[in-house]
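Our consortium's second objective concerns turning raw sequence data into structural hypotheses that experimental partners can test. To show how far this objective has progressed, the report includes one record in full. It was chosen at random from the queue rather than selected for favorable results. The single chain below, 414 residues long, was entered without modification.
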Amino acid sequence: MRARLCSTWLMAICLLALSAGQVLAAQAGGAVLWTASDRTPLRSDRSGVAATLKDLPRGTPVRQLQNEGAWLLVEEPGGVKGWAYQGHLEASRPLPTSVDLFAPLPGSIVLAETADTSRSSRSVQPERNKDNEALWSVLELPLSRQNLEDFLREGGIGEYSQATPHSNGGPLKLPALKPAAPPGGDAERLLGLNLAVTVTRKVAKPAFGTQLQRYVNLVGLSVARFAPGNALSYRFIVLDSPAPMSLSLPGGFVMISTGLVKSLDNEAQLALVLAHEAAHASLAHGWARAKATQFFRSGLGMTDDGVKSPLFGQMQDELLKQLLRHGTDQKQEYDADAAAVQMAYRAGYDPMQLIAALHNVDRASDGAVLSSSARWSDLHPPLQMRMNRIQALLARLPMQDGLALATQRFQANI
């Protein structure tokens, strides 16, 4: 009897666990899709300038009613029907999140001083000095959702494109990419900030001025809102270095050198490079590597006592050595490429530009070696192997008119 009762309770729990999307499908018989970006506007018509009927958060199930070009008529759980740009939807439910893409750094997140001296006085209390002031200026850039919407509209990106797409609308059906570790919250962000400070002290300073930093952040946010895996708040930091270099740090901190930016031809290529690095962060590649270090395995954490431990400095050295001298695991590089293709396409950039971007950076990196870093091409899988995999992914995309290059705006900002 007890076994039967347990079985009955388990069955009841399973029935209660059916998603809202399955309920929608059963009631109306339509295909169920999920909102894949931090905000999906339902429009009154197939245009980015049409009235917004309702904003849907990431992970909302919707029922597909009709598709026309790159737009889908859908119905959300409350019964509101509207047009959604195809990039905002996917066929599988994304991981839940409460992260605000445009939120300032939380009060619990502070920039930790990581000087090699006075290790005993190191803490996670706020520290500002001449060495990290330039980094703070980037981290505190005032960026809002309206700034991003204006940026997309001005560039004719994605749902703001003036071209008439010829592809059938629908969610992308590409390989699912899962994070290597659960999100680490404040600890992950604190570690990323500490590493960012170390990079700006030992490798290269942030580029002077806000115009380039702001432009790169807006391009990065355009694609980062579609990143698979863990949802993060991102900041994109341009480093003043002629050598092509890009880094993804835990917690959503992405670094890219002026040399790499200048090797590119257009905004779409920049978006794809930034998407690749943002995907490393959302897929927790760096965070998973950090969790495997002795620092975390010893039970230490991102606290004052933890930061003062010699194991903290060892962990930093180990992680940066991996990033700057050895590169990332090949499978993780391929996953980041796959994510970049998907993210750029969803945002409205031409994903075919990834191949040109990689060729450009590879040529620019020839002979360009930093004293603290290996050549860019040596940190990544063989170029031809990457090309073959990217070509296979591109062949699976429903190509459409109106995918952006934004060459003129790119040239005006770099």
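The partners drew two points from this record. Residues 185-202 form the longest helix (18 residues). The radius of gyration is 22 Å. Both points have been shared with the crystallography group to help prioritize constructs.
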